[in-house]
Write a structure and sequence with these properties.
The protein is of the alpha/beta class and 224 residues long. The chain contains six helices and eleven strands. It has a single domain, classed as Purple Acid Phosphatase, chain A, domain 2 (4-Layer Sandwich). The longest helix is centred in the middle third of the chain and has 15 residues. The chain is globular. The two termini are 26 Å apart.
Length: 224
């Protein structure tokens, strides 16, 4: 059984597909996606379609990111809609061929609503953004889980390693602090989409152009 974590996808469906082609996610695998499926990149709709299909062939855990938070708020609070557009919502709507949230399929709203705030395994926990180290996961404020920038000055009180995204590592490599790892590697901005094998610390990175490279968290640079 393999346990994977995938960083912020942001509409990068081609990079997601390339990772799947390489790793062939299957029934014995758990794949935790760290949120931010939509906005900024070109193919928000295709990303959600792909994840809905992936859910049928592996154990897929989908976390909520701040961009899903904004998208849901835009649906429920029309005064917020224009603000969301400036944070990548416009690109998301273009991928649906529309200018209004009313045209987004119900199955996609169901997917976004089903996303969770965190996920726990035996030795790791997974969040989109960050946690307060002294609070149990169930007591974490949403502002921290979805919006706080990466900071790992001390381990979490649970003793588990944190796997997160949200804070883009624009040089294209995961940031490993031992007790915490950030795997948002700026996929939508010309960087890489990272998939970490949590058990081995190996990772695979795919670009929107179909390039693939490998690395491990103990290496300072991935190998091409």
């Amino acid at each position: 059984m393999r346990l994977f974590a995938i960083g912020d996808i942001h509409g990068c469906a081609d990079a997601l597909r390339r990772l799947d082609q390489e790793l062939v996610f299957g029934a014995a695998d758990t794949v935790v996606t760290l949120g931010d499926y939509v906005d900024r990149g070109p193919d928000s709709r295709l990303v959600i379609d792909y994840l809905l299909e992936l859910r049928t062939r592996c154990r897929l855990i989908t976390l909520r990111g701040n961009h899903e938070v904004m998208m849901l708020r835009s649906r429920d609070d029309h005064s917020f809609f224009r603000n969301w557009l400036t944070y990548g919502g416009e690109e998301a709507l273009v991928s649906y061929g529309t200018t209004t949230l009313d045209d987004i399929p119900a199955a996609h709203w169901d997917f976004i609503e089903s996303t969770v705030s965190y996920h726990e395994e035996e030795h790791e926990f997974f969040v989109h953004a960050n946690v307060l180290p002294d609070l149990p996961l169930a007591e974490q404020p949403e502002k921290t889980l979805f919006w706080a920038h990466f900071s790992a000055s001390q381990p979490h009180v649970s003793g588990r390693r944190m796997i997160c995204g949200h804070s883009a590592q624009k040089e294209g490599r995961p940031l490993d602090c031992g007790h915490a790892v950030c795997i948002d590697t700026f996929a939508y901005g010309g960087g890489w989409l990272t998939c970490l094998d949590v058990g081995t610390n190996a990772y695979w990175q795919a670009s929107q152009h179909g390039d693939l490279r490998l690395g491990t968290l103990t290496e300072s640079h991935p190998s091409s």
